[in-house]
Amino acid sequence: MIIDTHCHLDFDQFRADRNSVIERAEKAGVRYFINVGSSLKGSRKSIELASEHDSVFASVGIHPDDADGITEETFTEVERLLENKKVIAIGEVGLDFFKKRSTPDKQKTLFTRFIDISKKRNLPLIIHNRDAARDTVDILKKNGTHPILGVMHCFSGDEKLLGEVLEMGLHVSFTCNLTFKNAKRLREIAKGVPLDRLLLETDAPFLAPQAYRGERNEPAYITELRDVLSEILNVSKEEIEKVTTENAKKLFKIP
Ligand SMILES: [Zn+2]
Ligand SMILES: [Zn+2]
Prior knowledge:
Elements lengths: L1 E6 L10 H10 L2 E7 L3 H13 L3 E5 L11 H10 L5 E10 L7 H18 L3 E6 L2 H11 L6 E3 L6 H9 L3 E4 L9 H7 L7 E3 L21 H12 L3 H16 L3
Parallel strand pairs: 1-2, 2-3, 3-4, 4-5, 5-6, 6-7, 7-8
Helix pairs in contact: 2-3, 4-5, 8-9
One zinc ion binds next to loops.
């Protein structure tokens, strides 16, 4: 039994065959999906999906790329969405300085605001960081609780960042990018994650595993990630499933 803690089944890439994608994943062993909102529209659709499928939970958040367009009304809507019983996390939120689609200052303000909401609601954070590790850590240390309830999703930093993330109490999740031929260094770093902090995710439709590289990713492919983790951490596939499911259930309070 596996929990895909981060996917975007609300995206258009799944419009034509969403139900078969969910069925294929369930056949592969995925018991629960956390459909992560990355915009207001996406958060609304995540809740819609969660209400249609027992196996789907939703998170509410706005990707840092969209920080420039935020108004106070955005937060009124966010608070309203958070009232839904199947919303179990805040995210994805964070910083993305890769293409700087929104100004860094606005991104930081938005991220801080969501950290406050997560504290107020006692909901875990699903954190996105791309090329912004320093600021992400600084903001979390300054504004977060100790330990911080949440996960650094799609981990892609070095040992130093991993150390800081673990020190803050966060969980760490890898996507199928860990299976890439050229991800040797990341696989080395992954060995430093204690089993009780590890989560699995696909970030589908993005980052399909090596065997399907360049195609649409889907939650069924999460088994490729499980297999690679089993190899590099030297524990059985069953153990990877068991501990990551326990971790996810505990962090996201999934019954
Ligand atoms: Zn992300
Ligand atoms: Zn994502």
